[in-house]
Amino acid sequence: MAELPAGGNWLSVPAPAKLNLMLHITGRRDDGYHNLQTLFQFIDHGDDLHFRLRNDGELTLTPAIEGVSFEDNLIIRAARLLQKKSEKTLGADIRLDKKLPMGGGLGGGSSDAATTLLALNQLWNLQLSLDELATLGLSLGADVPVFVRGEAAFAEGVGEILTPVPELAEPWYLVVCPQVHVNTGKIFSHKGLTRDTDPINIRTALKQGGRNDCQAIVSMLYPEVGNTLNLLNKFNLAKMTGTGACIFSSFGSEAEAISVSEQLPAEYVAFVAKGVNQSPAHKVLFRPS
Ligand SMILES: C[C@@](CO)(OP(=O)(O)O)[C@H](O)COP(=O)(O)OP(=O)(O)OC[C@H]1O[C@@H](n2ccc(N)nc2=O)[C@H](O)[C@@H]1O
Ligand SMILES: Nc1ncnc2c1ncn2[C@@H]1O[C@H](COP(=O)(O)OP(=O)(O)O)[C@@H](O)[C@H]1O
Question: Does 31 participate in catalysis according to the annotation?
Answer without folding.
Answer: no
